[in-house]
Amino acid sequence: MKDVLTPMKAIRKKCIDCCCHSVYEPAKCTAEDCPLHPYRFGHRPKEAKA
Description:
This protein has 50 residues and is an all-alpha fold. The chain has one domain (7-41). The protein is built from two helices and no strands. The chain is globular. The N and C termini lie far apart (33 Å). The relative contact order is 0.19.
């Protein structure tokens, strides 16, 4: 069965694409004005859980 692309996985995939397909670069991302920045690790940030 094909992997389901959840919203969090889609965001992670977009961040990797934005970082020239490097899986290590999203952690170093400095584009803090990007609306996806808090979600770049592929899971919801702690402050968004509340």
